Amino acid sequence: VTRALPDTAVVDAPAKLNAFLRVLGRRDDGYHDLESLVLRLDLADRLEVHAHAGGARFRTLSFALDVTGEPAVTAGVPVDEDNLVLRAAKVLADHRGIRGFADISLHKLIPAAAGLGGGSADAAAVLVALDRLWGCGLSPAELLDLAASVGSDVPALLSGDPVVVGGRGERVAPVTVADLGWVLVTFDFGVRTPDAFAWWDEDGGPTGPDPRTALLEAEASTRDDHRGNLGSFAAALFNDLAGPVIRRHHRVGEVQDRLRVAGAAASVMCGSGPTVAGLLPPDVPRLDRAAEEDLLELSGRGCRYVRSLSGRPERMPEDRPGD
Ligand code: C5P
Questions:
Q1: Whose Cα sits closest to atom 2 in ligand 1?
Q2: Ligand 1: which of 116, 197, 202 to mutate, judged by most atoms within 8 Å of the beta carbon?
Q3: Positive or negative: CA dihedral 307, 310, 313, 318
Q4: Residue 4: per-residue pLDDT
C-alpha cells in the first residue's frame, strides 16, 4: 500500500489460489464448511481509493466506482452496488455510521468468475484502505467479521499471508509456505461460486483426504531441500469442487491432464473454477510453445505465469504527501 495524495491510498488486491480445497459438508444455512490452503499470487488488481469522513463537513454518505481494464477481464464485472468493492465500503460505513465519501477507481487484471478471488481481493483491499482513510481504527477481529459479512473468501485475503481457512471461510490461520511458480490456464467462460457448490451437492459431495498431510508438505516445501519436497507437496494438491465442475465442463479436466503431461508437477482447479493451476518444478519455468498452444486451444484464453508469495504484501510506508 502506498500513499499518494492525502486521503488517497493506492492498494494492490492480489488474486489467490487454493492449493487444496476440501468441502466438508453442506450446512443448514446453505453454505459449506471448508478446509483450504489459500496462497496469494503476484497477479493483482489495483485500486485507487480517495476518501474522507467525519467532521462537520459531511451530512451524507456517497460512493463512486469506476472500473477499467481489458474487455476480457472487465466483462461481467458489476459497476453498481453489486460490486463487492461497494458492498465492502457500505458494510464498513454502516458499522461505523460514517458520513463522508469514498471515490474508488478499480483497475482489473484478475479475470472474474475464474476462481481466483478477484472480487473478494478487491473487497478486502477496500476494507483495509477505508478503515485507515476514514480513521475507523478497527481491530483485526472486527475487520475479519466485516470481511466475512461481505463474502466467504474475503477474510482469507485480508492479510496477504498464506492461510488455512475453516468454517465457511471466516476462520483464518496463517501458515508458512515457500514461494512457488505456477502456470494458470484461464477459460473463455466463468463458473459462478454458488453453482459449483450446488453441483457438489447434486453429485453427492465427494470429500477429499484430510488436508493435514497437504499442509505439512506445504510447510516442508519451505525448507532447504525444497526441491525434493515439491513432489510430495504436489501429490497433496486437490480440490473437491473439481469433479463436479469437470463433469459439466470437460475442457477443465482436459486442461488439468494436459498440464501434467506438459511438465507441471501437479495441477489443481482454483477455488470454484474454472481456472486450472499447474505447479511448476524449479527447473521448468515455462511450458514449451507446443503445450502453450494446445492449452490456448483447449481453454480459449491460454497460459499466464505467476508466483505464489509467502510474505505479506508491502505494508503502508510513512506518509509521503504528493508522492
Ligand atoms: O460468501 P459468498 O457470498 O461469496 O458465497 C457465494 C455463494 O457460494 C453462497 O451463497 C453459497 O451458495 C456458496 N458458498 C458455499 N460455501 C462456502 C462459500 C460459498 O456454499 N463456504
A1: 151
A2: 197
A3: negative
A4: 46
